[in-house]
Amino acid sequence: MPGYEIFGEEEKIEIMDVLNTGVLFRYEFLEQRKGVFKVREFEQNFAKYCGAGHAQAVTSGTTALKIALTALGIGPGDEVITQGFTFVATWEAILEVGALPVFTEVDATLNMDPSDLQKKITPKTKCIIPVHMLGAQARIAEIVAIAAQHNIPVLEDTAQATGARIGGKHLGTFGKCGTFSFDAVKTLTTGEGGMVITDDEQLWRSMSEYHDHGHDHQINPGGRGGEGRRFIGSNYRMMELQGAIGLAQLAKLDSMIVAQQKNKTVLKEAAAAIPGVTFRQLVDPQGDSATHLAFILQDREQCQRVNASLRKDGLGAVNFSENTWHYYPQWEHLLGAKSLTRSGYPFNEPGGKKRIVYDPKALPQAAALLERTLVYPVSIKMTGEKLQEMSRALHRAAQV
Ligand SMILES: *Cc1c(COP(=O)(O)O)cnc(C)c1O
Questions:
Q1: What CA–CA distance (Å, rounded) separates 75 from 51?
Q2: How far apart are the C-alpha atoms of 364 and 106, rounded to whole Å?
Q3: 69 CB less than 6 Å from ligand 1?
Q4: Cα 30 to ligand 1 centre (Å)
Q5: 183-229 pLDDT tens trace
Q6: Is the dihedral of CA 91, 95, 96, 99 positive or negative?
């Protein structure tokens, strides 16, 4: 899972380049910065790595979603479809721009079920956000094809799958744009940070301007203060220290994924000993960024038995149906329409009338799947000893 495991000299060297100039801001300070543009370089390298035309660095994966939605023109009156198994940030961003999230079932990929997506498209659907959860691919080709029939843009939430691919093509490049998170537990980390990639130059330009108070970034004699603007914006700028860390982390990304794949393979072989176990379906096993191993038991009862055995060995696995941050029925603040505003917006109209009511039982297929799925996070530096210990625990759990 985590780039934080492998901070080293490379990150320090990049950071020192920044501290040596004292310029923390990504724009301006042309003389003082002596040619050091870490955020810009990080964007360029990230776009190249992913095979995308453009990249826009921002403050977080959540703001990456918000900025992409804004640049796509999404707002009040619109519906955005995402999946019922994701991190809360995905739908927070949808609500933040004033649109309403609509949730689909997940299928054996543990990502968006294309057939349920088809059923949930309405004339109000203005964007579709499949999430590549836990490092593995959604059925993105099918989802993009369905969206294209309705002329709806696809925004890939690739926060958890930086570096993952299908047939060598990077996730985040299948849709109109793709967003990434570099928060403290993500594969590539800058502490906090995010990125949006796209091949659409106009879309990128809108994001670049919006994320910086509308600044058009056209070189002009008046300097930054003399720049023009086309629309209102806000501030979601990444700072140079984050860009510096990102550059060092990006250079290590492929080796991180190789290590995770190796460790995941060991765990998967051990988990295969559990009677009747199946694994989460991978669209392309070779392109899996392998941040997690998800194994699916025959029923809830077996799932609980197996996990009780693993827990006895101090190695309990995660059951996402019990997780309050990643699974629809557990989002009591969404289902209960809790917000800080006096009117109850975004769940209510400014006058207090309800805009939407969420039914906790709306996703029975996701429930049936997740209640019998166990997940182990896979890390880069799992020692041979640790892997053996986990394998032994899985073999013991196979006996219960
Ligand atoms: C982490 C995450 C985000 C948000 O990223 P932050 O950088 O933490 O704001 C969005 N979507 C998913 C699926 C995530 O896991």
A1: 29
A2: 10
A3: no
A4: 33
A5: 999 999 999 999 999 999 999 999 999 999 999 999 888 889 999 99
A6: positive
Does 1 have pLDDT greater than 70? no
Distance 3 CA to ligand 1 centre (A): 15
Q: CA 89, 329, 65: angle at the middle one, nearest 5?
A: 15
- Best of 90, 96, 325 to mutate for ligand 1, by most ligand atoms within 8 A of CB? 90
Residue 255 C-beta-side C-alpha neighbours within 13 Å:
9
Q: Is residue 162 within 8 Å of 260, Cβ to Cβ?
A: no
The reply to whether ligand 1 has any atom less than 6 angstroms from the CB of 189 is no
Look at phi and psi of residue 91 and say left if phi exceeds 0, alpha if psi is from -120 to 50, else beta: alpha
Residue pair 203/176 in contact (Cβ under 8 Å)? The answer is: yes
Regarding the beta carbon of 181 and ligand 1, being less than 6 Å apart is answered yes
312 CA from centroid of ligand 1 (Å): 32
Q: Measured from the CA of 86, which atom of ligand 1 is nearest?
A: 13
- The CA distances from residue 55 to 58, 59, 188, 203, 353, in Å, are 10, 13, 15, 11, 40
Annotated domain spans of the chain: 3-252, 254-327+364-397
Mean pLDDT of 304-323: 97
Closest approach atom of ligand 1 to CA 183: 7
pTM equals 0.98
Which residues are part of the catalytic machinery? 186
- pLDDT of 2 reads 81
Tens digit of each residue's pLDDT (9 = 90 or more) over 97-146: 999 999 999 999 999 999 999 999 999 999 999 999 999 999 999 999 99
On the 0-12 / 13-18 / 19+ scale of CB atoms within 10 A, 143 is: buried
Strands ordered across the beta sheet of 125-129: 100-104, 79-83, 125-129
Please, are residues 38 and 240 in contact by the beta-carbon 8 Å criterion? yes
Distances (CA, A) of 178 to 113, 137, 248, 296: 19, 13, 21, 28
Q: Which fold has domain 254-327+364-397?
A: Aspartate Aminotransferase, domain 1 (3.90.1150)
- Index of the ligand 1 atom closest to the CA of residue 193: 7
- 3-252 belongs to which CATH class? alpha beta
Ligand 1 centroid to residue 164 C-alpha, Å: 16
